[in-house]
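Reopening: Regulatory protein RecX still failing for me.
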Amino acid sequence: MTGRAAPPLLTTAYLEAAALHYLERFASSRANLRRVLLTKARRSLAHHGGEREEAEALIEAVIARLAGLGYLDDAAYAEMKTASLIRRGGSRRAIQAKLAAKGVAAETVRAALEEFDPEAERAAAWALARRRRLGPFRPPAARAAHRDRDLAALARAGFPGEIARAVIDAETTEADPADDPTRDMA
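Support: Ran it again with your exact input. Result attached.
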């Protein structure tokens, strides 16, 4: 005995309730919600039996219904996720990879990244450096010893070399867009 309760029988009502419960807690793309519901369906099918094709048809119907009601919108999800990842210090490449992993179509990702200009990428690199205490956010005595490591961290995060060098080699944090008192006045 594993101590885990038997999964519910697979019905449209159960899948819709599970989808709504998931969407209450997390923003999601259609493909990601499909993966979540397929996991639940596999557990139910393993315990109660049934055909995978029928489960997939039920899942597609639930996804279509929720999309029709406006609960699922891949374009809005991509824009929201892009803005969030930029604030956290995500590079263009990292954002593309994360959205692709969530099943967002390439055209939708491109549309969400249209406003991701070089200035936004530079601001994201500064945000990551601030969050991880890289470059000018390190104690001055440790900066030179960690320069290569800091550059590598920004490179692994997907930032172009010129942006990574500009951030890591900055003398002070005054170039950090977050320090600009006029940035929110637009």
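The first helix runs from residue 12 to 25. If you still see a failure, please send the error message rather than a screenshot.
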